[in-house]
Design goal:
The complex is a heterotrimer. Chain B is built from 3 helices and 2 strands. By secondary structure, chain B is mainly α. In chain B, 33% of the residues are buried. The mean pLDDT of chain B is 94. Classes of the chains: A alpha+beta, B mainly alpha, C alpha/beta. Chains in contact: A-B, A-C, B-C. At the B-C interface, helix 1, helix 2, helix 3 and strand 2 of B face helix 10, helix 11, helix 12, helix 13 and helix 14 of C. The structure holds magnesium ion and zinc ion (ZN). The site of magnesium ion (MG) has 2 residues of chain A, from loops.
Chain lengths: 488, 95, 484
């Protein structure tokens, strides 16, 4: 396979432009309770039912940190091969907003919990390293609902205080496709770690996207715009495409880019300036006097490091090295933890290569068709592996296997049982098969003569006829062998 | 440093406090005299001093990840000047 | 039993335990005094009916195990009290009824006391004269024209005037000690972290501490013990053992080394204050303590640093008062206008000044020059104390640079008002415990207090030293009841 080359540029009227993208991903920490209060983080509850006096900023309420959220963030930091800071500080980011009951967000500004790290992407044109600038812990805000009442907004504080990890990348991304790979990889790492469920529909993963453009060959970055709070990869990609073109147009017309915060308009597929937020852009960060500095013990980090599960990159290497899979196959299998789990469950029983094929071709087709994730698969790993095993042992043919696979989708039965019930066991008795072969040949004397006079293509026809007579149960390899002898 | 009227306007905007001209005038004077008093700190060299991070010599206490709070919506909404059964109600937010 | 209200808290509790009188009798006396005290304007909310109910039910159950068995106590209106209006002296909370009880007040109630009422204070504890309260100024029992000090002015006045047998206040820059000094009572600011801040409307989080205000040192030890303790709901409260201050209280201070800081001899200090200080030194010498001259070289920077740190924290702490969740709300076309009008109407002038100063010193471009600088100076001030405390056991200073001043005297000049806290502020910046104990009078017969500053978590030593001074100063209140 010829390697593709990176080719994402904006072709303006006055030249070729490169797009520079940095992401601030907000990932909700997988935890039962909030970062600084003991109310629940569960998604989808009735409005304002998961709100404590702390989350709603009543007078005299104070934050107490959730140790588990700290550990989850450390784990994520370790998963990003990042430096964990033994001394970090919680700051207040001050601004007024209806869904920010305290009038400030507790975040980390000067001294984040996690420092520099990296994420490796397997792009079609090769491996790409994306630098991580930092990861810090902060509180989520509540939610304002604007579309129920024409004059008023309604405030729901259920999310207020939920723990977020803000993962800030370096401006290393260069295309919407790389953003797609990056977010998926990040999500996958966190799901392997169990630190974020990555559920974008539920808002567990959102990103602020920083976009700037520069002429190809320029070494300096252009002025960037930040597109706030984009909640799907598709929207991120669309926002970047729109924003990059907008910036190129402005620059080519000789104007300058205003550094500003913008919003992605889902309906119009455009970005627009967010003036209201701009106005109050002086956050007046200072260390939260209600909290002491967060000092970590190195032992805790070592302990968490030891408990770290195998992550996608390591798993991929192992699959390539020990399972003889191609990098392409390995990549697909490790892309989601559930897929690799499925695969690893299967290969306890069956051949690795075949398992890979069955997952990535047959099973994925079924899942795609029904819009299911692998954890919702109608066929369990155990049953699929037993199907594959039957093929390898020559109990059924590949063709029969496909019929059985069809039936397994309806009822996740053990394929052995299906084969038995339907009498689909492969015919591998050479004597029986010889009988059928001779029968087929005697019925087709004319074709045998044609074959023997050089029309070798007819071989396939004979195989097909044998399979038909055997109702697909004949072992095709044996049929081939017998036919070759009989046709000589 | 004296705090002129524009500065007063700017910081009162940040602090979300509306002020009339007279108030702005008075505050400009008051704040300037307070800032003048504060300027005394410039006399001292602190280049080699680290800022105080906490006055107590203790590490941050933490809690376990347990759900022990919430489900008190009526309490949360009780004091709100404007609300309905489920939400705090505020004048329309324009983004 | 008209003289019950003259008794100390300790004597009242003992009287109830010995059945000399009932909780109900005690409560009625204080209710009666309180009802006749309107001219002092010490109360914001009265809970007399409920207090009487609590007293009666106490008398029925007669549980004498609690440290504060059967006593009614009025508290500063900065402590959130369940189902009782809590205003912080501000219009912005004029209608706020908490559904929760502050840790410190629940500590009192769990030891047998009950709430008598909520006492006036400077708005959000920002003030040194109790003139910034939305509910009007409080008057000092020592004179119709006099401020009681602040911000715990209502508490000080109520206690001095015998409206409550004891009270609690909060101290961010002197708000317990200065009014205590102005009204001739004992007031103690504990070590930062000794008492929980949970449920107290915050002014400046790194400085705020609740503390007892009492008639004498013995009561102070008792009340401190009752209110203190680690609270897992306050990340800055300290898991240190609470001593049995009362039983360890002793006037034997022989051999203790007492530092006299040179830098507290400020310009224009009235001779009476200087004399009082000398008198205090003599009392302690007489008690066998060793006097040492010490230096706290950065003292002069304490007030400017305080007026950066405290407003900065306040500007952020008070951002939650926005008309959405509770309290006052003004009209506005849109959300931002509603915020701006609510906060403009809801906050008084001094609170606005401090919010704006705090916003300014944190704003972009000024953070390093002001806030960071102030935190560095704070470190230097703390270092000063750390250094001298390797040599001395406690420090003796005056509590205030003057006695109580006239209402309206300093309201036009914020800085002159701020100078009131010149002796008390360094202690808050360093988190140390300090007490003001009444020790004498000025030429106008107004009370003056001495301040004793202790090592972190060594409240016992400053209580003991205060007792030694109290025994020798033999301070007696010398005002006549003019307000009823
Ligand atoms: Mg951001
Ligand atoms: Zn963030």
């Amino acid at each position: 396979m010829a390697e593709k080359k990176f080719d994402y540029f904006i072709n303006g009227e006055k030249g070729k432009w490169e797009v520079i993208i940095g992401l601030e991903v907000h990932a909700q920490v997988l935890s039962k309770s909030k970062l600084f209060s003991s109310s629940s983080t569960k998604f989808g509850a009735e409005p304002n039912t998961q709100v404590s006096l702390v989350d709603s900023a009543f007078p005299g309420m104070l934050p107490v940190i959730n140790q588990f959220c700290v550990e989850q963030s450390i784990k994520t930091g370790l998963g990003l091969k990042a430096k964990i800071n033994l001394n970090s500080v919680f700051d207040r980011k001050n601004y007024f907003y209806a869904d920010l009951p305290q009038g400030y967000q507790i975040s980390q500004y000067k001294k984040p919990l996690v420092g520099e790290g990296e994420v490796i992407l397997d792009m079609p044109y090769g491996t790409k390293k994306v630098g991580i600038e930092r990861l810090h812990l902060e509180q989520d805000a509540g939610k304002s609902i604007h579309d129920i009442d024409p004059d008023n907004s309604f405030v729901d504080l259920n999310r207020s205080g939920v723990a977020l990890m803000e993962i800030v990348s370096k401006p290393d991304l260069r295309s919407p496709e790389e953003v797609n790979f990056y977010v998926k990889k990040l999500r996958s790492i966190m799901r392997y770690l169990g630190t974020c469920d990555g559920n974008m529909q539920e808002g567990s993963l959102r990103a602020d996207v920083n976009v700037s453009v520069r002429k190809v060959g320029d070494s300096q970055f252009g002025t960037r715009c930040e597109i706030k709070n984009v909640n799907s990869i598709k929207f991120m990609q669309m926002a970047i495409e729109y924003e990059a073109k907008r910036q190129v147009e402005i620059l080519e017309s000789g104007k300058k880019i205003d550094q500003e915060t913008r919003l992605f308009d889902v309906k119009k597929n455009t970005t627009r300036s967010m003036r209201s937020k701009e106005e109050a852009h002086d956050y007046r960060y200072f260390p939260d006097p209600d909290l002491l500095p967060l000092k970590l013990n190195k032992d805790l980090i070592d302990k968490l490091k030891k408990e770290l599960p195998e992550l996608p990159d390591q798993k991929k290497d192992r699959f390539i090295k020990d399972h003889n899979l191609s990098p392409y196959e390995a990549n697909i299998l490790v892309s989601e933890k559930e897929i690799s789990d499925y695969y690893e469950e299967m290969i306890k029983e069956c051949d690795k290569k075949l398992a890979t094929n069955w997952i990535t071709v047959e099973l994925f087709a079924v899942l795609n068709k029904n819009n299911l994730s692998i954890s919702q698969s109608p066929i369990s790993a155990k049953n699929l592996s037993s199907l594959v095993k039957m093929i390898t042992l020559g109990k059924i043919s590949g063709k029969i296997a496909k019929d059985v696979f069809e039936k397994m989708q309806v009822s996740d039965k053990d394929p052995k049982q299906i084969v038995e019930e339907e009498g689909l066991v492969q015919q591998s008795d050479p004597k029986e098969l010889e009988k059928i072969v001779l029968e087929v040949l005697s019925k087709n004397q004319d074709k045998v003569i044609q074959y023997q006079s050089g029309k070798v293509k007819l071989f396939g026809y004979f195989v097909g006829e044998v399979m038909k007579v055997s109702k697909g149960k004949a072992n095709p390899n044996l049929v081939n062998d017998i036919l070759k002898i009989k046709l000589k | 440093m004296s705090i002129d009227k524009d500065t007063v306007k700017h910081i009162s905007k940040l602090a979300r406090i509306s002020l009339d001209e007279k108030k702005i005038d008075n505050l400009s004077k008051d704040l300037s005299s307070i800032m003048k008093f504060i300027e005394k700190l410039n006399k001292i060299n602190t280049d080699k001093t680290n800022p105080l991070t906490s006055i107590i010599n203790a590490s941050l206490k933490s809690r376990k990840d347990e759900v022990k709070d919430g489900k008190i919506r009526s309490q949360i909404l009780k004091n709100s000047p404007e609300k309905n059964e489920e939400f705090f109600v505020v004048p329309k937010v324009i983004e | 039993m008209s003289n019950i209200s003259e008794l100390s808290l300790t004597k009242i509790i003992n009287g109830i335990k010995k059945k000399d009188f009932t909780s109900e009798e005690v409560t009625k006396v204080f209710i009666n005094n309180s009802q006749n005290s309107k001219k002092l304007n010490a109360y914001i909310s009265e809970c007399f009916d409920d207090a009487l109910k609590s007293a009666k039910s106490f008398d029925k159950k007669k549980d004498y195990n609690g440290l504060l068995s059967g006593v009614p106590i009025a508290v500063k209106d900065l402590f959130c009290t369940k189902d009782v209006k809590t205003t912080a002296g501000s219009k912005i909370l004029h209608n706020f009824i908490p559904t929760y009880e502050s840790t410190v007040t629940s500590n009192l109630w769990s030891k047998g006391a009950f709430l008598l009422g909520k006492l006036n204070c400077d708005e959000f504890a920002m003030g040194s004269s109790n003139e910034t309260s939305f509910f009007g100024n409080v008057v000092n029992p020592y004179g119709k024209q006099l401020v009681p000090g602040g911000s715990s002015g209502g508490s000080a006045s109520a206690l001095a005037a015998e409206l409550t047998p004891a009270t609690i206040g909060t101290d961010t820059g002197g708000s317990i000690r200065q009014p205590a000094s102005f009204t001739g009572i004992v007031g103690l600011k504990p070590t930062y972290g000794r008492c929980s801040r949970w449920g107290i409307a915050a002014f400046a989080s790194s400085l705020d501490q609740a503390g007892p205000m009492t008639k004498n040192v013995e009561d102070c030890a008792l009340l401190l013990q009752a209110m203190s303790g680690y609270d897992p709901k306050d990340s800055t409260s300290v898991d240190a053992k609470v001593e049995n201050y009362s039983s360890k209280l002793t006037e034997n201070v022989k051999g203790l080394k007492i530092g006299i800081p040179n830098e507290y001899r400020v310009d224009n200090m009235p001779t009476e204050i200087d004399n009082l200080w000398k008198q205090g030194i003599d009392y302690l010498k007489d008690a066998g303590a060793i006097i040492k001259n010490i230096s706290l070289p950065h003292t002069v920077y304490a007030l400017p640093a305080y007026y950066i740190v405290a407003p900065a924290e306040a500007s952020s702490n008070l951002a939650r008062y926005d008309g959405v969740k509770y309290g006052h709300r003004a009209k506005g076309k849109n959300l931002i206008e509603m915020y701006e009008n609510t906060r403009s109407e809801g906050f008084g002038d001094e609170v606005k000044r401090r919010i704006l100063i705090g916003t300014y010193v944190l704003s972009s471009g000024y953070y390093d020059a002001y806030y960071l600088k102030a935190q560095k100076v704070r470190q230097l001030i703390k270092n000063d104390f750390d250094k001298v405390f390797s040599d001395v056991d406690a420090i003796l200073t005056p509590s205030t640079p003057s006695s109580a001043f006239k209402i309206g005297d300093k309201t036009d000049d914020p800085v002159s008002m701020y100078l009131n806290d010149i002796f008390t502020v360094p202690v808050n910046l360093s988190g140390l415990p300090a007490i003001s104990v009444p020790a004498g009078y000025d030429e106008n017969n107004l009370p003056l207090g001495l301040q004793i500053i202790g090592k972190a978590f060594d409240e016992q030593t400053i209580l003991n030293l205060s007792l030694a001074i109290e025994k020798r100063a033999n301070f007696k209140k010398n005002f006549k009841v003019w307000w009823s």
